Amino acid sequence: MAYLVGICGGSASGKTRLIREMRNALPEATFVSQDNYYKDLEKQATDANGRINFDHPDAVDMPRFEADLRRMVAGQSVTVKEYHFNRPDAPETYLTYSPAPVVIVEGLFIYHYKPVAELLDLKLFVEADEHTKLIRRIRRDAAERGIPLETILEQYERDVIPMYKKFVEPYRSDCDLILPNNRDTAGAQVVINHLRVVIEARKLARPVMDAI
């Protein structure tokens, strides 16, 4: 059975950076992003001004996310359509998540949605100072998604901060390990070392299970 690791934290807290380090160090692991389970635009709820709040759990198809995780735990591969932020005309691409001894699950709402949270063996919380997260988000959204500065700031104040306070931060105290990510820390390496031990233990246990 796969060992499931959750990675959560606020927008631009450094989750992607942590995952990049883990991916380079743990080729045996499979990485699953909640982002690829955003509902199609035509299925998104809008407010009175026609705006979509992508920082609300209702923007994500969490039941489908849970179902796919359960399939992976059961040893099945899962194929999903890759989500392209603010690029509705991008060609469709698909990702295949293969079963692995360690499955690393990343997303804003993985602890808020209890059926997913209950599947996780290890819960990590990545955090950074508010001003650091805002600077990172401005740089990312402007460079990668072409969003104007005024829109970035408006979304951050209207949606990002309130939704973080309501749906993300309350689960910080439930996590096994909190990783500050304002600068380079040893936290990522601690997690990587632990997961290497987990992977090796499952390799050793597999011949025994196959023989039974």
Describe this structure in words.
This protein has about 210 residues and is of the alpha/beta class. It has a single domain, classed as Rossmann fold (3-Layer(aba) Sandwich), CATH 3.40.50. The chain has 6 helices and 7 strands; from the N terminus they run βαβαβββαβααβα. It has a 5-stranded parallel β-sheet with strand order 2-5-1-6-7, with helices on one face. It has a two-stranded antiparallel ribbon with strand order 3-4. The longest helix has 25 residues. The protein is globular, with a radius of gyration of 18 Å. The mean pLDDT is about 90.
Helix and strand layout, with pairings?
Blueprint: E1 3-9, H1 15-25, E2 30-33, H2 62-73, E3 78-81, E4 94-97, E5 102-106, H3 114-117, E6 122-127, H4 130-145, H5 149-167, E7 177-180, H6 187-211
Parallel strand pairs: 1-5, 1-6, 2-5, 6-7
Antiparallel strand pairs: 3-4
Quick rundown:
With 212 residues, the chain is an alpha/beta fold. It has helices at 15-25, 62-73, 114-117, 130-145, 149-167, 187-211, and strands at 3-9, 30-33, 78-81, 94-97, 102-106, 122-127, 177-180. α1 crosses α6 (187-211) and α4 (130-145) packs across α5.
